């Protein structure tokens, strides 16, 4: 049986990192947008415009990835609370502890993981 307490600690630590990252990214995006509002920026003709647009795009993509990761972590914490953590959501068999070490938020055993987690 999986040591759910240990994995809960790992998941809570990862959740804290994701929340901090989301806050930082939101702050970065907000500050760039505020700066752009005060400037006459034409992304097409301004030599820095494309760089700023690229950085905003990257930050937005990282935010989305972090949001998805946070949702996966919250779902794993809910499975711990319900007593189903460490069991595959497809077949119900135990997920190998090594897999949980690598991806503690996964709801799938290695057999059912392809393309899902």
From TrEMBL:
Zinc fingers (dksA C4-type), renumbered ranges: 88-112
PANTHER family per record: GENERAL STRESS PROTEIN 16O, RNA POLYMERASE-BINDING TRANSCRIPTION FACTOR DKSA-RELATED
Domain called Zinc finger DksA/TraR C4-type: residue spans: 83-111
Species whose genome carries this gene: Arthrobacter gyeryongensis
Taxonomic classification: Bacteria, Bacillati, Actinomycetota, Actinomycetes, Micrococcales
InterPro entries from the UniProt entry: DnaK_N (IPR037187), Znf_DskA_TraR (IPR000962)
Alphabetical list of SUPFAM superfamilies matching this protein: DnaK suppressor protein DksA, alpha-hairpin domain (SSF109635), Glucocorticoid receptor-like (DNA-binding domain) (SSF57716)
The UniProt record lists the keyword rRNA processing: no
Protein name: TraR/DksA C4-type zinc finger protein
Coiled-coil regions listed: none
Keywords: Metal-binding, Zinc, Zinc-finger
């Amino acid at each position: 049986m999986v040591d759910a307490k240990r994995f809960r600690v790992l998941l809570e630590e990862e959740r804290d990192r994701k929340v901090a990252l989301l806050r930082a990214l939101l702050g970065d995006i907000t500050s760039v947008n505020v700066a752009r509002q005060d400037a006459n920026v034409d992304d097409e003709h301004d030599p820095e415009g494309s760089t700023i647009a690229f950085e905003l795009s990257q930050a937005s993509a990282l935010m989305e990835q972090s949001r998805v990761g946070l949702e996966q972590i919250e779902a794993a914490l809910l499975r711990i609370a319900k007593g189903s953590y460490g069991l595959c959501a497809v077949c119900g068999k135990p997920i190998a502890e090594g897999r949980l070490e690598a991806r503690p938020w996964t709801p799938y055993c290695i057999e059912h993981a392809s393309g899902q987690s």
